[in-house]
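Researcher: I'd like a structural prediction for the single chain below. Treat it as a standalone chain; there are no partners to consider.
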Amino acid sequence: MIACLSMATLYGTAQEKKVLIVSTNVDSVGASQSGTFLREIAYPFKYFTDQGYTVDIVTPKGGKAALYQRPKEADDLIVIQNSDAFISKTSATLSPAQVNPKDYVAIFYPGGHGQYFDVVNDERIARLAAAIYERGGVVGTAGHGAASLINVQLRNGAYLVDNKSMTCFPQWAEKKFMDISNYGKLLAFDMQEVLARRGAKLTVCTAETYGSKELNQIVDAENRLVTGAFAGSAQWVAEQMVVLMRGKKSR
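Model: Treating it as a single chain, here is the predicted structure.
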């Protein structure tokens, strides 16, 4: 039966089932442990796989992804963390040279500060993201993951975020909560400010509107971009990405 199928049919079937997650190899910021925040990669990883997608993880160097977590995590998160599938993918991530963008229908960037020091300036990963997007793929970010998009440019030279509706981790929250980055002082740029300069149509909550889902979870269905401002939105981002991948109306 398989022999009767065309290569295009086989290729298309494989493509429809693959999602690329971008992580980092940088495991510290200053004196603080960092990398990719566990809950922002683990919950989406499980959701994508539960929905039938094959998930690959890429880092600038390949090999082991740098992950960090809170001292005590939810039991369901620990189950994912200890699963064979998650351990396998995060212990032996792909390098950019091993990734063919034609194989993927989506790319997801979880948050964490490690990416500020490798992913954001990695031209190879930026080209992969642009290629996936320009083939009709869906892009998603959670929390600080939006920082990885600032240098992604399309073939026409425009930034991927230009004229796209989105959100990101707010700069006021960086200065108030993020001791890992010394409250933003260890970061090379203000993500919110740079995204705005790149032309993004940003919606960012204030300290007073911190709990507003309308401000913190944005689906730009027309432009195939899903963004969540905080770590708690990571699975929601994955869910909405699947909605777009399947061509359903966003909820």
